[in-house]
Amino acid sequence: MNLENTQVQMRKGVLEFCILSIIARGEVYASDMLAELTGARIMVVEGTLYPLLTRLRKAGLVDYKWIESAFGPPRKYYTLTPEGERFLQGLRQTWDELITSTHAIVKP
User: With 75 labelled, which of 17, 29, 98, 104 sits at a CA distance of 20 to 30 A?
Assistant: First the structure.
């Protein structure tokens, strides 16, 4: 078994939760999300992020608006919808329960 593959899969498992958490802080541009995720060592590329953002939008969890940029074309900034906020609250509760359960097992 390959340790690196398992680590990548663990990070991918929390990607949606992390993206929604970033967006919950306020309007955010996709490249800023990529930078924050990469800085946190959750390696993700545009080819993964944009389809996920599209899926979240189609599910009614995020929305976006175009904002003019002084340095190029307009930029798409993402926000959570009210449904997205409720969904994220559910994910946070699940995350907290998972942390508690995991710590009970790995750090008895």
Answer: 17
